[in-house]
Design a protein that fits this description.
- The chain is of the alpha/beta class and 982 residues long.
- Among the domains are: 281 residues, TIM Barrel (Alpha-Beta Barrel), CATH 3.20.20.140; 83 residues; 321 residues, TIM Barrel, CATH 3.20.20.140.
- The radius of gyration is 35 Å and the shape is globular.
- 46% of the residues are buried.
Length: 982
């Protein structure tokens, strides 16, 4: 009785809730208020709550009741769905459904735009939190049908444009309703990304590190604005503050960008929900540590067509692995307890969604987890309890299927959204797939039917000969036309649960006859089934760190190492020590001497070999995803640390050249560039693991042609500075502003925190050091005078090919030089460069380093250092110091690395020959007591790469021969970063 009272109370509540108050003048007001009962189904109320032979009761678009034994009210319409399954309709959290793709702003001018194009909004056009998806929404019936066919009932849509994209909206895919009813929430989430808006030509930011810096400053400005510290009206910041309690969804992409997005979120106490890229398995521990919920696309790539061995040879092993490993991503995420929803985002066709999901299930992703990631998880992330489940009171959003929704043979019959039925495939059509023996006029044919529902197709054979035919199956009727010695038309129906067919045949003369067909029953032996199961076993190749051919399947570990009887080049006053031992323990050099012993140490015989400190490259552009933020003439707010790329193969190549540390510098697009990253080349570590602990603070400045844009083309003549004189004024202006900013900050009065000014104030306070791109003596003099005006010193002039002209002034100022060994005449401002430059500066008492600025040269800096012996007559030891202790001094790391001295970091290299020789090979490169490069293991890796590629080629060939889709490989361009790379 209590159940009955509860049911009627719910019934009355739903009835009252649905009362209409609009008048009608174009028809009768009576609406369809039927109560529908779906009986005898297997009902997935949630992924964990499954009711067999259950009943689902709905009215007015909501679930009234669900259970094993539901009391049915009078007048209820009963729909028997015996043998079928009912699931909650799916939810896609990341979509642009119903929203036209923003059109790129057109302009007749090719000149860059530096200022914002809008008034009353934020200073950067790419920050658009005031955008509301509902303002540009138009229900797309055609696209909705594609979603419905795949089982989706709700989508979360937004304008996919800009760094801050504003509010999204949650839409039920109910084409029989109006926006007022099917829009479930017009403030479902706020969206962000690293991508600029196409609606503005504003230059800044031009890089991912610029986008990250912009987001940091935006959050600071929003707080400042919210506290009422400014009188100006800013609609963007008002909207950003209004949206801060919404779900924050960030479009990341790769696993690396997930970590970058999470970093911004953590700095601002925001836990983003992040759109991934499908490669999270490559760094699953780091992904797990973000604690972020993810939205994962499943757009797996097809196998490469490797039938041409010359083309196959050019495909990177990492790309081949991606085809093999990507389908395991969902399983890996689930096994690591990471909360994630699925999306159709980036699929060329929604039709491929189920195929890809079924593949992921074969790779170990459970069906329960698959259902949760499409229903309850996205609903919970969106804060909605009335979608993604079939609990009482939820929307009547559900699909009716022939069986397991994740089975390739299952048919989706109907998709009900808010109680409205959308027929996908007629539920009353019998499944007639299979092979049949057709008897017609004493002739026998084989009829093979495949496909689902209305999309079934057939082929006909007579013996081994294919017969031209046309087949259709609609409303239970079979129509088959045979072209065999004339044409014959067959019409008929199925009987006996689809195992038999019969009907009438009409030949071309109009004669009638009877035909029949019986289904062939396949009898597979147990032995054959076992064999097939073995052949279908999934092989997922292991992931390496990074996930490329020369990656490490297990990260190298720190060891106690005793290097015996080597010729040790200390880069210290001790000079060269013959037949000497070096003991490394806990990542440090602990003892240097002869006949050393250590229990449990790994002993390396250095007889006839040379041990040196690791090479340090003061000026590099490897291991980064960006090098220039060119949007402003000062970008002190950006940091290379944000875009360190641990996957760069040049890290490994540099290790093979004996390099252990580098400074990744910002480029020379502007007078005041970005902050640098100083890293150790710990191949296999993540980006954070590469960066020095307690790293000295550096920033890149630049002089000359690049910053005044004389080599940028005719359209780039509007940004200040355009002359070398203007460059000087940029420095004076920014340092004066920084000085005033710092004074205000120290006064205790309220101030707007400005990351750019904070960085420049650090320079004035001698907390951050300048490494300046320079060529011409006049500008070198100029910047030293500017620095002295503001009471600080320039730390390093890099390039400095006219340093020999001003070496006395550099010595007086206290600045070091990091130069090329013998580059000259490659552009106008280096016409006066000479190869004796390094030696002349050194002889003047300046700390001089030889740098690379080039991914190729950095692998042979030992040979570049040797050139100072030829050009300047330096000794071997002084030449070697130019790539070890001298760059360490310039980077303020000489107390930690750069020489072989007790107490320093164990960053050392064992060479086969004199390290300055062209014959010298780095046999072992050790960082913090860990061997990151071993020439013998390198040979083993090369053989392993060959074996693995052969294995993958075999798998891809099998995929093609078994009818799978393949794609031709595309040539990839690896960007080679230099100072002037945009």
């Amino acid at each position: 009785m209590r159940k009955l009272l509860l049911f009627f109370s719910l019934f009355v509540a739903f009835s009252l809730h649905s009362q209409e108050y609009f008048p009608t003048n174009t028809g009768v007001k009576t609406t369809n208020n039927k109560i529908l009962a779906f009986k005898n189904a297997t009902i997935y109320v949630t992924p964990q709550k499954i009711i067999k032979k259950g009943t689902l009761l709905i009215k007015d678009g909501k679930v009234l009741a669900v259970g094993k034994s539901v009391s049915l009210p009078k007048g209820v319409e009963i729909i028997d769905v015996k043998g079928k399954n009912i699931y909650p309709s799916f939810i896609d959290m990341y979509s642009n459904f119903g929203i036209a793709k923003p059109k790129k702003v057109s302009s007749s001018s090719r000149r860059p735009q530096y200022d914002a194009g809008r008034k009353g909004f934020y200073w950067n056009d790419h920050v658009r939190p005031e955008t509301e998806a509902s303002n540009s929404f138009h229900f797309d019936s055609k696209k909705a049908l594609d979603y419905l066919k795949a089982g989706f009932g709700t989508v979360n849509s937004h304008v996919q444009d800009g760094i801050v994209r504003g509010k999204g909206m949650l839409v039920a895919l109910n084409s029989n309703s109006s926006d007022a009813y099917r829009i479930l929430d017009n403030s479902s989430a706020q969206y962000l990304s690293f991508k600029k808006s196409v609606l503005s030509r504003q230059s800044y930011p031009t890089s991912k590190m610029g986008a990250m810096a912009l987001l940091r400053q935006m959050y600071l400005d929003a707080k400042w604005y919210e506290e009422g510290n400014t009188k100006n009206k800013d609609k963007s910041l008002e909207a950003l503050n209004a949206n801060k309690n919404l779900l924050q969804i960030f479009e990341g992409g790769s696993w690396l960008d997930i970590l970058r997005a999470d970093k911004i979120g953590d700095e601002n106490n925001i836990q983003y929900t992040i759109l991934g890229g499908g490669d999270e398995y490559e760094r699953i521990n780091e992904i797990k540590n973000t604690n972020a919920s993810l939205i994962i696309p499943i757009n797996f790539q097809n196998a490469y067509d490797v039938s041409n061995p010359l083309i196959a040879k050019q495909i990177a092993l990492s790309d081949m692995r991606k085809w093999n490993q990507d389908p395991s991503n969902l399983s890996v995420l689930a096994k690591n307890g990471i909360n994630f929803a699925l999306t159709t985002h980036k699929l060329k066709s929604i039709n491929s969604f189920h195929k890809n999901l079924q593949k992921a299930i074969k790779y170990g992703f459970s069906k329960e987890q698959a259902l949760a990631s499409l229903t309850t998880i996205p609903a919970n992330l969106l804060g909605k309890t009335n979608i993604g489940n079939l609990n009482t009171g939820s929307y009547a959003n559900f699909i009716i299927t022939s069986g397991d929704v994740f089975n390739s043979k299952t048919t989706i019959y109907e998709n009900w959204v808010q109680g409205d039925k959308i027929v996908i495939n007629n539920m009353n059509i019998k499944d007639i797939t299979g092979d049949y023996m057709v008897s017609l006029n004493d002739e026998n044919y084989t009829l093979s039917i495949s496909g689902k529902g209305a999309k079934q197709s057939a082929s006909v054979k007579k013996g081994d000969k294919k017969v031209k035919s046309k087949f259709s199956y609609k409303d239970g009727w079979i129509h088959l036309t045979l072209m065999d010695n004339g044409f014959t038309r067959l019409v008929g129906q199925t009987i006996n649960a689809s195992n038999l067919m019969q009907g009438t045949a009409y030949d071309e003369a109009g004669n009638e006859s009877q035909w029949s067909a019986s289904k062939k029953v396949k009898k597979d032996s147990k032995k054959k089934k076992a064999s097939n199961k073995k052949n279908d076993a999934i092989t997922v190749l292991p992931v390496s760190f990074p996930n490329v051919g020369y990656g490490n399947f297990t990260l190298p570990k720190q060891e106690t190492i005793l290097i015996k009887n080597a010729t040790v080049w200390t880069s210290e006053e001790d000079g060269i020590l013959e037949n000497t031992d070096v003991l490394i323990k806990n990542g440090k050099i602990v003892e240097i001497g002869k006949n050393l012993k250590s229990r449990r140490a790994k002993v390396i015989d250095g007889t006839g070999k040379y041990l040196t400190a690791g090479i340090i490259d003061e000026h590099s552009h490897i291991a980064t995803s960006a090098v220039n933020e060119a949007g402003h003439n000062s970008t002190a707010e950006v940091s290379i640390e944000d875009v360190v790329n641990p996957n760069d193969m040049n890290i490994y190549r540099n290790l093979a050249g004996g390099v252990t540390s580098i400074q990744i510098l910002h480029g020379s697009a502007n007078p005041i560039g970005g902050r640098s990253a100083i890293i150790k080349l710990k191949w296999g570590e993540n980006a954070e693991g590469l960066i020095y602990n307690n790293s000295p603070k550096f920033i890149k400045f630049a002089l000359g042609e690049n910053v005044k844009q004389s080599n940028w083309g005719a359209n780039n003549n509007i940004r200040f500075p355009q002359t070398r004189m203007g460059t000087e004024q940029v420095f004076i202006d920014y340092f004066q502003r920084a000085k005033e900013y710092d004074a205000l900050k120290k006064s205790g009065k309220p101030y707007r925190k400005d990351v750019e000014m904070e960085t420049l104030a650090e320079i004035i306070n001698k907390e951050r050091f300048i490494s300046c791109h320079s060529y011409v003596q006049s500008e070198i003099n100029m910047l030293m005078k500017v620095a002295e005006k503001f009471n600080f010193n320039i730390n390093t002039f890099t390039h400095i090919l006219e340093g020999y002209k001003v070496a006395d002034k550099m010595k007086e100022h206290g600045v070091g030089g990091s130069t090329f060994s013998d580059w000259w005449a490659y552009k106008y401002e280096v016409l006066d460069a000479i190869p004796y430059n390094a030696a002349i500066m050194h002889n003047q008492g300046i700390t001089v380093a030889i740098n690379s600025d080039d991914r190729e040269m950095s692998r042979r800096l030992n040979q570049e250092a040797a050139k100072t012996i030829k050009y300047g007559g330096l000794s071997e030891l002084e030449a070697w110091k130019m790539v070890t202790i001298n760059p360490a001094k310039l980077l303020h790391l000489d107390n930690r690395t750069g020489s072989i001295k007790v107490g320093k970091d164990a960053d050392v290299v064992l060479w086969s020959h004199n390290p300055l020789s062209i014959y010298a090979k780095a046999e072992k490169t050790i960082i913090d007591g860990t061997i990151y490069f071993d020439i013998e293991k390198d040979l083993e890796k090369r053989a392993a790469i060959k074996t693995e590629k052969s294995k993958l080629i075999k798998m891809m060939l099998a995929e093609k021969m078994n009818g799978g889709k393949t794609v031709m490989p595309k040539k990839k361009r690896n960007q080679h970063f230099h100072c002037d790379t945009e």
